[in-house]
Amino acid sequence: MPTPKILDQVPLTFSQLMIDTQRLGRNVMVNVGNWQQQLNINKQAFFNGWMQRPDFLARYPLSMSPAAFVDALNANTGNAISASERDILVGLLSPNSNVGRALVMRQVTENAEFSRRQFNRAFVLMQYFGYLRRNPDEAPEAGLNFDGFNFWLTKLEQHNGNFIQAEMVKAFIDSNEYRGRFGP
Fold first, then answer.
1. With b meaning 16 or more CB within 10 Å and e meaning fewer, what string describes 124-146?
2. What is the pLDDT of residues 87-140, one digit of tens each?
3. Among 40, 16, 38, 15, which Cα is nearest to 27's?
4. I need a surface site. Which of 32, 82, 122, 172 has the fewest CB within 10 A?
5. What is the DSSP string of 98-154?
């Protein structure tokens, strides 16, 4: 069985995160001026740009009906969106509305239930990005696969998301890889 590509296991790569983070944070200084407004402007620009990415358009072509688009997004959340939320989002995409797919995508990704369901996966991924500065399937990962990522995800879930009890952060900081990169 072929090893899954990174986007089959996790939603983005380390390099994509770095680029996207810079875009989202451009001209934002927390607690200075209208920083919240600027962050919101950056988020909307981010989602508008995301809609134009070739891989997104291949998966969600513009020819999809509003219902098919929302249903496909919802399926990718593990059906985190309620039936009433789904209907509202489909309505936002009606032909008589100026609200675009980017706004609907943003509402789906910022959905509280979806965020709750993805928290542990995102937390493990951020350990790789933050401490090891790499994708979870890259060297020196044994097998160049997601075994380490899946190990930590399973362990975190066994401890009900308590990363202290799972000793996850401690393990990343104590790892030879981290110490070799940043010193003892």
1. bbebbbebbebbbbeeebeeeeb
2. 999 998 876 555 689 999 999 999 999 999 889 999 999 999 999 999 999 988
3. 38
4. 32
5. ---HHHHHHHHHT-HHHHHHHHHHHHHHHHIIIII-S-TTSTTSGGGSSHHHHHHHH
DSSP code, position 93: T
Give the rounded distance of the alpha carbon of 181 from its chain centre: 26
Write down the mean pLDDT value for the chain.
88
Average pLDDT over residues 41-67: 90
Which two three-digit tokens encode residue 100? 């675009």
Q: Give the type of residue at 17.
A: L
Which tokens hold the place of 48? 């508008």
Locate 89 and state its tokens: 């989002």
Q: Which amino acid is at 60?
A: Y
